[in-house]
């Protein structure tokens, strides 16, 4: 493993890509706003204080697992059960790490720690297909930080709104994230293997959710990737 | 107790995120593995979408008056012709709101 020497870039080479990253993730920030509001209001509904709701968004910073955990806290689940489900609900991050390994592993420790902390589904959606040649740490940092701030403030909005608007979860706030991911995935479908991969993921995710299989997300993801690989073998 | 839960959740999520980014982990990616990982973005994003569209918590969303489904179909068609993420997100959210008012 070769370590990149810590190059000191001139300010322009840091600020510009960081700003570009922040701008590139703006549509995803917009889409996560309703989700963050949902997370904030769910926290209040599940009996947590506003500070705890905000703390969860600031420390855990993983929307799906936060919503699951708050549902479990509300229903009185034990600590261990919550932690096990957190592990499975966020297991797709192993794949993100593997995929971005060539880009991030050679960086100094503080970069790895910060970028790993900021590595959400959304940041991965933005940087996952860049590859080592195009990957820019400042771009990823700018995007990740912008998204983090947005998530935090959306949660804050949700915490505030929870006391004035009732039944926030009946407004369909979760559709925004589906719309965003569709907008990202559809342009990627340029050949049969990707199409097969996407269709597998769609059918399997719905089927496994129906039967409440634990770790459904990671099982679905890996299976869909394998289908994609098998189909591309036939082509190549 | 809640704070302990939050901190431990944070530790687990960070572990999952950092795990394969650690250079000390002896992982060499073969060409096949790279091809496989190339499918990770569409696979995981679709796998997140599916249940949102089809389920309300543990229950199936009613068919055919499921605004999630038709707005998602609308988003797919829109994204196919209009390769602008922001426009697709905004327009399909508008369509979603419209459908919700309708059903």
Q: What is the mean pLDDT of chain B? A: 91
Distance between the termini of chain A: 31 Å
> Helix share of residues of chain B?
55-70%
Shape of chain A from CA axes?
globular
Q: What's the main sheet of chain A like?
A: none
Tally of helical runs of chain B: 5
Largest sheet of chain B: 2 strands, antiparallel
Total strand count of chain B, please?
2
Rg of chain B, please?
19 Å
Order of helices and strands of chain A: HHHHHHHHHHHHH
According to DSSP, the number of beta strands of chain A is: 0
Low-confidence segments of chain B, given as residue ranges, are none
Give the SSE map.
The complex is a heterodimer of chains A (about 240) and B (about 100).
Chain A: H1 11-24, H2 26-45, H3 50-59, H4 63-74, H5 79-89, H6 92-104, H7 109-117, H8 121-127, H9 131-134, H10 137-164, H11 175-185, H12 192-210, H13 216-235
Helix pairs in contact in A: 1-10, 2-3, 2-4, 2-10, 2-11, 3-10, 4-5, 12-13
Chain B: H1 2-18, H2 31-37, H3 40-54, E1 55-56, E2 59-60, H4 67-81, H5 85-102
Antiparallel strand pairs in B: 1-2
Helix pairs in contact in B: 4-5
Descriptive overview:
- The complex is a heterodimer of chains A (236) and B (103).
- Chain A has 13 helices and no strands.
- Chain A has 236 residues and is an all-alpha fold.
- Chain A folds into 2 domains: 11-174, no CATH class; 186-236, no CATH class.
- Mean pLDDT of chain A is 89; it is low at 1-6.
- Chain B has 103 residues and is mainly alpha-helical.
- Chain B has one domain (30-102).
- Helix content of chain B is 70%, strand content 4%.
- Chain B contains 5 helices and 2 strands; from the N terminus they run αααββαα.
- A two-stranded antiparallel sheet of chain B has the order 1-2.
- In chain B, a hairpin with a 2-residue loop joins strand 1 and strand 2 (59-60).
- In chain B, helix 4 (67-81) packs antiparallel against helix 5.
- Chain B is extended.
- At the A-B interface, helix 2, helix 3, helix 4, helix 5 and helix 6 of A face helix 1, helix 2, helix 3, helix 4 and helix 5 of B.
């Amino acid at each position: 493993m070769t370590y990149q020497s810590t190059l000191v870039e001139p300010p322009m080479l840091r600020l510009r890509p960081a700003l570009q990253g922040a701008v590139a993730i703006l549509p995803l920030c917009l889409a996560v706003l309703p989700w963050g509001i949902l997370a904030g209001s769910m926290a209040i509904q599940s009996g947590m204080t506003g500070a705890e709701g905000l703390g969860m968004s600031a420390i855990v910073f993983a929307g799906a697992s936060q919503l699951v955990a708050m549902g479990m806290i509300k229903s009185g689940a034990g600590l261990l059960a919550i932690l096990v489900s957190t592990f499975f609900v966020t297991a797709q991050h192993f794949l993100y790490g593997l995929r971005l390994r060539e880009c991030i592993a050679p960086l100094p420790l503080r970069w790895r720690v910060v970028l790993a902390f900021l590595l959400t589904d959304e940041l991965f959606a933005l940087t996952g297909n860049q590859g080592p040649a195009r990957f820019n740490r400042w771009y990823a940092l700018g995007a990740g930080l912008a998204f983090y701030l947005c998530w935090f403030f959306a949660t804050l909005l949700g915490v505030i709104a929870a006391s004035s608007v009732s039944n926030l979860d009946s407004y369909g706030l979760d559709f925004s994230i589906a719309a965003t991911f569709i907008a990202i995935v559809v342009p990627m479908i340029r050949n049969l293997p990707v199409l097969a991969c996407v269709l597998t993921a769609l059918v399997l995710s719905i089927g496994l959710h129906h039967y409440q299989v634990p770790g459904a997300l990671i099982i679905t993801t890996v299976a869909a990737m394998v289908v994609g690989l098998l189909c591309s073998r036939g082509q190549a | 107790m809640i704070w302990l839960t939050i901190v431990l959740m944070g530790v687990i999520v960070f572990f999952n995120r950092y795990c394969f980014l650690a250079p000390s982990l002896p992982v060499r990616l073969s060409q096949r593995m790279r091809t496989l990982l190339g499918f990770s973005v569409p696979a995981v994003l679709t796998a997140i979408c599916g249940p949102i569209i089809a389920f309300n918590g543990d229950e199936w969303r009613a068919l055919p008056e499921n605004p999630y489904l038709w707005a998602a179909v609308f988003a797919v068609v829109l994204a196919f012709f209009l390769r602008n993420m922001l426009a697709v997100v905004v327009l399909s959210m508008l369509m979603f709101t419209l459908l919700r008012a309708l059903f």
